[in-house]
Amino acid sequence: MDLSVKPEYRQFREEVREFLNQALTDDIRAAGRLGTSVFHDKERAMAWQKILHAKGWVAPHWPVAYGGTGWDVVQRSIFAEESLQADAPMLIPMGLQMCGPCIIGCGTQEQKDYYLPRILSGEDFWCQGYSEPGAGSDLAALQTSAVSDGDDYIVNGAKIWTTYAHYANKIFCLVRTDKECKPQQGITFLLMDMDAPGVTVEPIIGLDGVREQNTVYFDNVRVPKKNRIGEENQGWTVAKFLLTFERGGQEYAPGLYQYLRHIKVAAEQEGDGFGGRLADDPHFMRRVSEVEIQISALEFTENRIKAALGSGQSPGAVASMTKIVGTELSQKLTELAIEAVGVAGLPLQLDALEPGTGATPIGPEYALTAMPRYLNTRATTIYGGSNEIQRGIIAKMVLGL
Amino acid sequence: MNFELSEEQQMLVDSISKFLNNDYDFDTRRKIAATELGYSADNWRMFAELGWLSVPYAEESGGFGGSAVDLMLMMEAFGKALITEPFIPTVILGGRLVEVLGSAEQKQSLLAAVIQGELQMALAYEERGSRGNPACIATQAQAVGDDYVLSGEKVMVLNGHAADKLLVTARTSGSLVEREGVSLFVIDADADGVDITGYSTMEGGRAANVVLNGVKVAAAQRLGVEGQALAAVETVLDEATIAIGSEAVGAMEVLYKTTVEYCKTRKQFGMPIGKFQVLQHRMVDMFMAHELTQSTMYMAGLRNLEGGDVARKAASALKVQVGKAGRYIGQQAVQLHGGMGMTDELNVGYYFKRLTAIDALLGNTDYHLTRYGAIA
């Protein structure tokens, strides 16, 4: 048992850092710095994706045969950490993280050959059609129907919380192909074109005043059967493949530490209202310490998972809890941040948050992003299987209740 | 980074687990705790024979050459069975301070006896209102010629009722919380002027309050340089903090698992109460609290090897995490066991009480949170 870092990893970190320093323009970094949700500025995130694609680093977690880097779990984690430190924008995940792995796991050779390169290059921009107005946590209750018609399906229904659907040219959907069986068994995984006749997109404005999400309506949309991933009625299995692919893949601690550092900077610069700095207020700083200790508990939990994966073992039960702990800590942190900036967090500054507008922020930059992040972070415990659903999964799968 | 146990560590953990499974069930533990001594002298001899008492000492001190990581693994195993044998007071707080600060002669006379299981020790450092801060000392050591005269009162001296030798912190100079001026002495428990009041603690442990009424101490009984003992005391207290935190992690594991099993069998409204979502989510939070605390334990054990502020901060982080998670898991375990959780009959109450005691010992959550924030 030890914390030693192999020299080759140190060297790798240097290599990554050097690349990031020369490849990231100020304009692209602005998107990372001003990002207030998982989804960073589309134009700059895609520009960054093209640069990474040219370097061969756009999909580190994919198998090498499909364009992955062949990095081990530690290298992937180093790349993610360094990207964060350098204010690189986060790549938009729907293609690279969500749809791509499903195609890799369950697609035909023809589908892989066609879609995967287009995901890597950014030529296709994907959005995700899972949730419906009547199917949130109970995803298997989805009603969007696909009825067989010769070589096609005819799709009718609606999908909701469809992030960046207004930018997307493709959508991957779970649709119902059988109503007579158990809910999970009648679902099929379909790839569709957003410009197909009968697809309409309506905006949803979020708490932070930004259009990130949409409702997507399907009115007799014709979809070729060759766009199906996996067998008919096996969509649930395809969707679940994504979960196993992702397992242990996402680390929260580096991002949480990064944000904690921003809060400490804010506390150095903000007053405490009694002539001192907020950083001298023991009540506030105690809460900072408390969260920091909780982040280190998560960091070492994630280290244990990485160490297990790195030596080819199953990380076991702990892997299922990082989503709950990571998202709940991110909410605590953003709450601390709005408390640190106080009234400076209240001006609504949508222009200044958008890179490239040249709008001058009212007040310091850390105050500019604090409130939108606080508002947006409320979603983290709701999406991707709400934390209540996650607890239900652990109760059943880990505790055997 | 690697969390796998070495062959030696695995053997150590296995031998402890085997002993606890075979010879330390809950009824046995209850009987041991009810004796006047509060622990089993036979077990202690066996710990010595198995080499467990030598684990934290360097090989040149006659020890096994173990580290905080080894202590952590041992104590996590001990914590599962709530053993009452005074490993932390004698082996860590006592023996380790002798090893860190003692002269060659002091080490020779004391350490060998500890390792052989023939000497019981206790560290008298806590005072009324000091809250675990080892610099907060009012006890005075006045120099008189070549000797010292010690006066003051120490509280919650773990194993103080059974110790043959006491290590006592006292001020040779400086004011109440000054870092300079703290000296450490080894005195016989039966020396003139030493008044020991032993007592049982609420979870089945033993401790004592110690009054020093002008106790005469020779210069040769001082460990280390006069007035400069604090750093070493802190170092060893951090090791003890990791040890007691690891014990808590072991106790938490048993407690949450016991609760889960109970909720699978206890029926109300015609079904096992573990089917109720509100209880399921509570137990998931208990499970996560244990896992996160275990991760913090690894962090504290491994960072202890780096030394310095990194090690100190990590020890305090562990104590904070242990305090909070211990409260949560302990209280929820009692709640979910319902009325039975309130009784002396089940082991649940003993784990709950031990976790409650652990928070108060060696500086509580609030103390360590303050200390954590003060370390750069």
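qc> The mean pLDDT of chain B is 97.
qc> done
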